[in-house]
User: Fold this.
Amino acid sequence: MQKPSIPKGTRDFSPEEMAKRNYIFDTIREVYHLYGYQQIETPAMENLSTLMGKYGEEGDKLLFKILNSGDCFAGISPDELTEMSPTKFAAKACEKGLRYDLTVPFARYVTQHRGDLFFPFKRYQIQPVWRADRPQKGRYREFYQCDADVVGSDSLLNEVELVQIMDEVFRRFGIRVCIKMNNRKILTGIAEIIGAADKIVDITVAIDKLDKIGLDNVNAELRERGLSDEAIERLRPVILLGGTNREKISALKEILSASEVGLKGIEELEFILDKVEPLALRANLELDLTLARGLNYYTGAIFEVKALDVQIGSITGGGRYDNLTGVFGLQGVSGVGISFGADRIYDVLNQLDLYPQEASRTTQLLFVNFGSAETDYLLPIIAQIRAAGIRTELFPESGKLKKQMSYANVKRVPYVALVGATEMEAGLINLKEMSTGEQTQVSVDELIARLR
Amino acid sequence: MQKPSIPKGTRDFSPEEMAKRNYIFDTIREVYHLYGYQQIETPAMENLSTLMGKYGEEGDKLLFKILNSGDCFAGISPDELTEMSPTKFAAKACEKGLRYDLTVPFARYVTQHRGDLFFPFKRYQIQPVWRADRPQKGRYREFYQCDADVVGSDSLLNEVELVQIMDEVFRRFGIRVCIKMNNRKILTGIAEIIGAADKIVDITVAIDKLDKIGLDNVNAELRERGLSDEAIERLRPVILLGGTNREKISALKEILSASEVGLKGIEELEFILDKVEPLALRANLELDLTLARGLNYYTGAIFEVKALDVQIGSITGGGRYDNLTGVFGLQGVSGVGISFGADRIYDVLNQLDLYPQEASRTTQLLFVNFGSAETDYLLPIIAQIRAAGIRTELFPESGKLKKQMSYANVKRVPYVALVGATEMEAGLINLKEMSTGEQTQVSVDELIARLR
Assistant:
């Protein structure tokens, strides 16, 4: 018989991996709570009408679609069937799909339940999402997202708060990070002043290469991408922008002086910097004009977090999007949010060996099983120890001591208790500390006091 | 535009519902840890070859199948296509399905990772499952299961431990319960002695009706179901079995004296009772011969938990199954496990109003926003309060006080802090306790001491 397997791009998580993952989720969750975000959950399956058309044409193809149960051919004649494209067939034979991210289901949630919500609504959501992407190293078909969003408030204090949250989460993890910021309005302003509103993506991609290929090559690339010499000339001070955040901002104020929207973007950025600076964050905060994440999506602030000590893509991202729920018919609800990339954070914590010891909440104490009489004697004692909150096991079989000790070793149980005839008579427990091998005779109360 | 909705049989969970659900999951999780069970997770999608044929013909129909991405018609000629049944098509066009329970994925996990596991392996798993059942009150197409199983140990101490776990979980919830027990071997023994091995289900169904319809009607029903008069006569003492667990056991020993397997079942039951009785459980433990849950599945102990104060089906169930992984080619691995029904427990806790106050970990303190100067003053103070672990919000907009107070009310925030020009000058915080309306002037340190 063939050994069973799981679909490509999906993963099983072992107890050890789960302990680490829970440490990540619990840390993020705790910080979200500290800032007043409340958890919601949405179903794994959404109606395809909710999902389709929200992630672009490419995204539609990456949706996992669920075949209608019962007769999936219902309403399709044999003639139609043989002439149908797979895409068209899927549209007929599948009503439901697996969620692709947490943002669209959240927009659907806000629209559907608007009558029950009080705005501003601060929600977080930690759930898996599914994408039929080609699996590769670090890219999975099932992975968790950890999103927090505020909807129904235009205040930039929300952006400030999200910066604080990103800083606090990575401070708790012990990961040194740089929080990069940009503002979509500044990018729009730049496009305005160089007269190339449709070239924003080309421009950010080119700017991003300055360090690697130099100004001449960047300009050549911009020309290739269809920018006029005049536009390239106007872009020069933007590309060469350097210095501190404040220096960049004061230069941008000059450059964008003719663009109302550009100046508005600078004002927003300055507000966030003004509020955040007195808070003495641990993370570096850096204005980065090359930051454009899903440009069609964000309308104000754009955030991205990079780990300083590990070579890896961004480990958190987010920004402000006006009209989140407009696509579902609810107008005028602005939102701003962030999403922690749990899988990449997992890799970073592993590489830097930053998991705390307690991350695996394993058994603290294992009682060796010497047989029936000892078991009868021990069961009530073990119940008493558990009642004191100590995670305790009795090995279920009175087999070889070696196997029982191996069990303790494999599970990394720090204490093993040995109670045979002598100990029963004395009313004591022979307690072995596994790290040192040291054995001591203790009473039940002493054992509880020591392990609690 | 039509208001968006979710697929029938699925649910959104609001912050309030999530808080209650997390209380349930956290309680179960904590008790599982206390007994040394370790968490694993498996993917939502399994290969259909893993799932098909494991839940009977009816179960196969209830699997949600995922249409292959790319060309779902690949390898099917137009002629074949028009002649195909929907079932046959699904088998060709779908490689993956959503998991239907946690037991089969666990058996697949154990088989696949056997080289990395040390037995006995005690795992728990809390994840959603999906079934294309007809939705109705209390029955959903997506719901959570909370399973714990031990595999690789035949010891009945595992059964004892699971009884303790069920007792402890419901003690923590404050739900009074009866834990019903039976043993598949006893049922087999009964079938043996009356010479009707294939009538076990009919017999248990009939016995179950004794209280309602009386012995004569039960016998009539048994006759209808094809039992001989002789078999019915032999069954009489089983049907009329009453008294305490011990009385039932001693009567059963007589009745089943000629059945080796029946006596073995009684021995197993007695072992569990012997070990559990000195532990002074809170729950009633009751031998119930009508208990047959998924008879083809269990091979030894069978458990079921009923709430005493609410009319509802069983809220937890489980038992021992030999050869869990045999279907995947790994022989000789026995298992025993239980599964808490989170959705029913949710309903019971609601009906009995047993949720603790702290179940909703909401914001503890809201700062009213009076404007820009106050915000600049407060942001570092709020950071200090959060650093002390107090869940704190600053309302993001300096709008009407009434709206801000409503926000606190809706979110059930117990304390609101008001800091205007006077308080800023005095270096104090005007702290309002929402339940009493009482206001006091406190320093930051006093506030932290009071709320922590």
Remarks:
- Chain A touches chain B through 107 residues (CB under 8 Å).
- The two ends of chain A are 48 Å apart (CA to CA).
- The longest strand of chain A covers residues 121-130.
